[in-house]
């Protein structure tokens, strides 16, 4: 029924906002800036919950061959780059600015589509041009410009855009979305565990002042659980709605997070930087509309 689609979309939006807010709280407010451990913890819990849900029959995860997992390895490596750089950027940038850079991943996606398919519509070109111009202009008008945060933001958007291209055009037919994420979690956990010592995160976290505090432990547990529920809600959303409807719910979820974030987190935003955020999301709406036209 039609109302069930709205329930699915609303559920996704709630988990989307709560997940990003919890991650932002741990990374920015508590200043737990050790992404190998933070993302390693999230991927560990996500993998265990996904495996448990499959064993209990709550989700469908079939056994797959080693060759199938290896064929998805490039996507998993891009996934690791996406979540690692995303954590670095989210820790240093306001949520509104983070999503402005996040939207620019569509530029990478459309550019690679152009190289692969060579049939990108003029509407998409206009849309991604607006998104790109907003992302490029934002650092120039940010009243608290953080070069490190923006550098990680660029790495995040490039990794995310390339991951979407790989998922769309090189997706193995014998792996479902949940099975892909299981491989992502496994590869991420291995890489992040090996990187924890060379990056200094392991020793740095041992000196973290809030390590034994209840609010830190609660925040880390909540972030892992919400990330898993967001994954399930995303898969449910994509399976029940057409692509432009999914993209519209994702857009609405970002807008909801941006509008609510000033009530939760302190951020310094001026008129020009706010205009960059607004135009970025206008470009995103145009992109959704262009997908609808092409259907």
Assembly state: single chain
Number of helical runs? 13
Spans of at least 5 consecutive residues with low confidence: none
Main β-sheet description: none
Our count of domains comes out at 1
N-C termini distance: 22 Å
Order of helices and strands: HHHHHHHHHHHHH
What percentage of the residues does DSSP assign to strands (E)? under 5%
Overall description:
By secondary structure, the protein is mainly alpha-helical. It has one domain (35-210, 264-294). It is built from 13 helices and no strands. The longest helix is centred in the N-terminal third of the chain and has 28 residues, at 2-29. The radius of gyration is 19 Å and the shape is globular.
Question: What's the short story on this structure?
Answer:
This protein is mainly α and 295 residues long. The chain has 13 helices and no strands.
Any key phrases for this structure?
295 residues, mainly alpha, 13 helices, globular
Helix/strand layout:
Layout lengths: L1 H28 L5 H22 L9 H6 L1 H20 L2 H9 L1 H12 L5 H20 L5 H23 L7 H19 L5 H6 L7 H27 L2 H18 L10 H24 L1
């Amino acid at each position: 029924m039609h109302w069930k689609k709205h329930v699915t979309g609303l559920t996704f939006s709630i988990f989307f906002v709560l997940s990003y807010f919890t991650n932002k709280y741990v990374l920015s407010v508590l200043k737990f800036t050790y992404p190998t451990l933070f993302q390693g913890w999230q991927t560990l819990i996500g993998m265990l919950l996904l495996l448990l849900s499959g064993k209990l029959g709550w989700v469908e995860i079939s056994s797959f061959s080693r060759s199938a997992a290896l064929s998805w390895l490039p996507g998993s490596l891009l996934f690791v780059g996406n979540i690692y750089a995303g954590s670095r950027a989210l820790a240093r940038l306001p949520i509104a600015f983070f999503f402005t850079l996040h939207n620019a991943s569509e530029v990478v996606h459309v550019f690679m589509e152009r190289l692969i398919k060579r049939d990108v519509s003029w509407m998409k070109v206009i849309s991604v041009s607006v998104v790109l111009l907003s992302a490029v202009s934002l650092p120039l008008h940010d009243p608290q410009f953080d070069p490190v945060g923006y550098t990680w933001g660029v790495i995040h958007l490039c990794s995310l855009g390339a991951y979407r291209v790989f998922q769309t055009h090189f997706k193995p037919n014998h792996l479902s979305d949940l099975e892909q994420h299981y491989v992502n979690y496994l590869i991420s956990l291995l890489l992040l565990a090996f990187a924890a010592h060379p990056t200094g995160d392991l020793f740095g976290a041992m000196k973290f002042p809030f390590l034994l505090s209840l609010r830190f432990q609660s925040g880390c547990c909540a972030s892992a659980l919400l990330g898993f529920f967001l994954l399930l809600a995303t898969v449910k959303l994509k399976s029940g709605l057409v692509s432009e409807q999914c993209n519209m719910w994702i857009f609405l979820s970002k807008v909801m997070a941006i509008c609510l974030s000033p009530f939760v987190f302190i951020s310094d935003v001026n008129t020009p930087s706010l205009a960059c955020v607004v135009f970025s999301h206008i470009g995103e709406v145009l992109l959704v509309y262009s997908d609808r036209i092409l259907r």
